[in-house]
Amino acid sequence: MANTFRQFLSAIAPISDEEYSDTMSFFSERALKKGDFFVEQDKVCRHIGFILKGTLRTYYINEKAEEITSCFCTENNLATSYKSFILQEPSNLIVQAVEDTKLLVIDYQSLQELYSRSAVWQTIGRAVAEREYIVMEQYASVLNNETAKEKYLRLLKEQPSVLQVVKIEDIASYLGVTRRTLSRIRKDLNN
Amino acid sequence: MANTFRQFLSAIAPISDEEYSDTMSFFSERALKKGDFFVEQDKVCRHIGFILKGTLRTYYINEKAEEITSCFCTENNLATSYKSFILQEPSNLIVQAVEDTKLLVIDYQSLQELYSRSAVWQTIGRAVAEREYIVMEQYASVLNNETAKEKYLRLLKEQPSVLQVVKIEDIASYLGVTRRTLSRIRKDLNN
DNA sequence: TGAATTTTGGGACATTTGTCCTTTCAGGCC
DNA sequence: GGCCTGAAAGGACAAATGTCCCAAAATTCA
Lengths: 191, 191
Hints:
Two copies of one chain form a homodimer. With 191 residues, chain A is of the alpha+beta class.
């Protein structure tokens, strides 16, 4: 079951069987039903989750009370409100399951415990932060440089499954345009 | 001279006098003249620099051969092409001094050496990555949610000195609009 | 210093995107 | 099945932004 997680870790730092089974006692499985929240608004995010199955959407509410989607999280990736988790402060981001989802989760205290116990986990912790940075840099570069149409095509290519489970409105806010503009883009692409 | 750097580190992790002077032997000072490159395009970024004095601009060249500015780096902050540095792969970002600049730099090998020597530096390394992540997340959220005018006002408030040293064109690309639109925004703000 | 070059501001028009709205379609529920 | 509700597509007009341009201002360098 947790094999994909082992692969995920091994891609970051070599980890022995012993270290792996030791650390796995810090993790637990968690199931979410469609619509359940993994991180709630204004609550401190206490967990990082590795997505075994399912899809989550990360969004925030702007001052016009609109939901702005910032991320779709899919299988074999991490889900968290990372800033809230790092700083252990209330989250302005909301993370919600858009379909039934299974996660492997670890809480903040346990992760700190792992960091202090093991150099391997220090390395993993840094590598995860670096990796999240790179993902975010890529996201920002795309936001800044690509048109909504290009962004849509990229989503279609990189996370096609997302289109099947989320609402058009959420994709529009993810692309930084209105529903109306996304409608025009989609019409355009069907010639 | 390097006092501000000591403060920068202390804000991340407690560091003793001994640890500080030990590790300082890994750093060296570097001066850049206006227009000099700190990171060149398609070369591996081998250094992280702490800006003692001056300003740098981070940008890339898009497929229309336009310079797109992604970051202005000011005093008491870090400058690097972080992704290239982490992965030690060629940088698509260019980092250039927009005025005479002094940095405290460390190269990749030395930093790895510090990581392996000292738990404090493991923690600093992770904290820096986390911090860079948070900055980037904030940047992406701003890009996605604020209008060009709001972004301009934010820049004015958070990095007013930048306006004195960089070209309008670079600010426009940083805001994600054309020079023409930034001109309209500025006219608007002067009533 | 003065000529050449670069940078900036803004006019005129074209294009894109947003706003507001109506219609159609699909799924859930009695 | 028929009704209700929410999601999606797209028409019509308004607003924002881009493109192309030129003239004025600032800067650079011989």
